[in-house]
Write a structure and sequence with these properties.
- With 213 residues, the chain is an all-alpha fold.
- It has one domain.
- 78% of the residues lie in helices and 0% in strands.
Length: 213
Amino acid sequence: MDTITPFFAYAAALFIAAAIPGPGIAALVGQSLGGNARRTGFFMLGIALGDVTWLTVAIVGLAAVAKTFAGAFVVIKLFGALYLLYLAWGFWASDVQKTSVASGTERTPVAAMFAAYIVTLGNPKPIIFYLALLPSVLDLGRVGFGQWMVLSVLTVVVLFVALTPYAFLAAKARNVMSDGAALRKLNQSAAVVIGGAGALILVEATSALLQHV
């Protein structure tokens, strides 16, 4: 990696992959609809840290190990799916006041970040990108520590750029609401979006688990 061209190629490929809607974006939209900006920011950071983890796995050549311990990743995926379903229930059952915006749950920003991290580790989209597609973009055998640092920073920046429009539009939709009934429906919409993402991941994880039985 003697030039900056591979970095541009990586950033472009990652942006395209990140911008394509999937379970992670569905969870982010639900978080933005039902939560506040600070928790949403930490949620995006959790997604980015999950991607950096998969980037690291790919660079250090642990793809084979990841396949060997596929069962462990299935368990992670199950936990992520169940957490999304729990979060969806929190939004659905939340009590929305007419003059306030409900957060849906009492989660701390760190909890939101951890939830997004777990969801990303079990999300098939980044797994496919980093373990299957990334080797066609970068010569992973020539990536040293310095290049890994640059790629990690690029990952965080690119993901925030790609995901912020989704979060902004969802938050804007919530901010224009002032009627309690409308906010209640918006919370329920957030619950449906998050619950749908959780259900999708749960089905995939269950199917993978049955294949290992």
